[in-house]
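Dear H.,

Thanks for agreeing to be a second pair of eyes. The structure we're designing against is below in token form, covering all 171 positions.
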């Protein structure tokens, strides 16, 4: 499974960007595309349109919000996805909650993309380096960790969790 971080340009220079941990540590399975309102990546648009890739985000704005990209493993009206049914590519909006909602609102191809979500009873986020976090939301690294745990990639999840804990403990 490939993880595609659709990264808001402001995240590229933030020292608190947790998506960069996964990108730097697992470049063979995590890649980043910088989001553009006016010039979206044509390959990404095609993958989402064909449902080769699924967007990790709540199915609607009325559902509990998921953070920085948090929306995993539960198809819109279904149960947790079994590992063999995981999409080949998962797109995660790598941004603050406010930026992620803006990205979704301003990108027709994201609005219509098939979505997957995290199970509703995920643990609270441990991310403390940013203010105004969405209640019930997770940061990008926490989403990836949860995704990997669900699809049996415990070693990758454990390594990323360790790196996230180290980053999160910096003041």
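And this is the sequence the design step returned. I haven't edited it by hand at all.
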């Amino acid at each position: 499974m490939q993880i595609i971080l659709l990264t808001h340009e402001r995240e590229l220079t933030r020292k608190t960007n947790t998506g960069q941990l996964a990108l730097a540590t697992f470049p063979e399975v995590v890649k980043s595309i910088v989001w553009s309102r006016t010039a979206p990546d044509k390959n990404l648009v095609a993958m989402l349109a064909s449902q080769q890739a699924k967007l990790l985000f709540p199915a609607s704005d009325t559902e509990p919000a998921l953070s920085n990209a948090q929306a995993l493993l539960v198809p819109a009206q279904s149960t947790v996805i079994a590992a063999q049914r995981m999409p080949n590519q998962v797109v995660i909006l790598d941004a603050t909650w406010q930026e992620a909602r803006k990205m979704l609102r301003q990108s027709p191809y994201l609005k219509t993309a098939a979505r997957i979500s995290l199970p509703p009873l995920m643990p609270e986020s441990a991310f403390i380096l940013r203010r105004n976090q969405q209640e019930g939301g997770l940061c990008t690294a926490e989403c990836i960790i949860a995704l990997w745990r669900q699809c049996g990639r415990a070693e990758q999840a454990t390594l990323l969790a360790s790196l996230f804990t180290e980053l999160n403990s910096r003041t």
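Two observations from my side: The longest helix spans residues 154-168. The helical segments are 19-25, 42-49, 97-105, 108-111, 140-150, 154-168.

Warmly,
E.
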